[in-house]
Here is the input.
Amino acid sequence: MVSTWQALRRGESVRERRLLLARAHERFTTEPGDDPELLGRFAAELRPVVFESWLRSRRSTIDPDRVPDRPALGDDELQELRRTHPIARVLPVVQRLLFEEASESGLIIAVGDAAGRLLWVDGDHALRAKAEDMGFRAGMDWSEAAVGTSAPGSALALDHAIQVLGAEHYNRFVHQWSCTAAPVHDPATGSIIGVIDVTGGDSAASPHILPLVEATLAAVEAELKLESLRKLIDEARPKRRSEGAQRPAPAASPRLVVLGRDPALLECGARSLPLSGRHAEILLALAAAPHGLTAAVLAEQVYGDPESEQTLRAEMVRLRKWLEQQGTGVELASRPYRLGARIRIDAEEMLGALGRGAHRLALASYEGPVLPASEAPVALSLRADADATLREAMLQSAAPDLLYDYAQNWAAEDRGPWETLLRLLPPLSPKRARVVARLEALA
Here is the structure.
């Protein structure tokens, strides 16, 4: 697709282009439309995609001087469509990638359905108020059949992304605006289900906006595909449950929660039982060694001293008694010391998620360093492994929004994530100011 900027003649400014378009629009909407010579001049002055759209608009007898002021949807219809439309399920993706940036950049973001009816309009508040004066608000019809050439309507008519500058719009009331839009497709069927639009001044049709809209579109369609897969999985679950109804479900193994915890927790079914520091360190060491540990090795991992076996044995008696009193079902065996059943460790699960590339899940599960108050070698080792692996994964593979959350919450004093964010964030991202400020403070 040739963008507005690519169509500028050598040495021609956007202002000059706007004036040329305004003169062409005036002639096109007032002079006879069947003169082949005149049509040839318009075809030479306009981008083909715009000229063809103007022809469609005139054939549909659209009035270029009428303000779009007739809502296509009543309030109840609008709310129902917002509730049931497929894009509603993935709207947080659009909000994260476009809405937040638009409010800081003097732009408006609109999301419409396949018929061109606007369902959500957000962004710069002052600009939205002006846009409403020309009928650009939720519930209005902005299809080509209703208003003629516009980015949302023409993107739907052409089934591809398009940028529209100033008087390229067929309606005169929209000539002060520019926009970029792209259609949204159902990943399963390929059919159009909606449109995403960026509207504002000349910057709304600038070169960097189109890749931003297309990247958002790709993220939305990917999320829709995931939603479809989740639905298939959910539909399959009742069948599996009915097939397994005759078999008792296996009980979940106990889980040791040590990330950011002091005291740690032992999760047994629906119960979360606080553990003393020593008991948590002992269980952590044994849970990581399914084949067991000798008294000397366990003492080294817990106390940092293999000569502390006598102290360890007394603590093991207390821990065994506590596990029995609490009805945890966890048994401690001796010679070597070992667990009678597996205990999961939340830090190991987080590391597993990172190994699978599930960075968002891993960061969400990270609540802080392993046993932050502990100086036991077993805690220090797992703490260093978990923190270093998470940092490296965030720097190498995480999306910018995920890396930003990591830097904000867990790496405020670490220059590495902030410097990486400065390279990754788009130029208009409102997060860049925070990143620059943080780097200056660290310097």
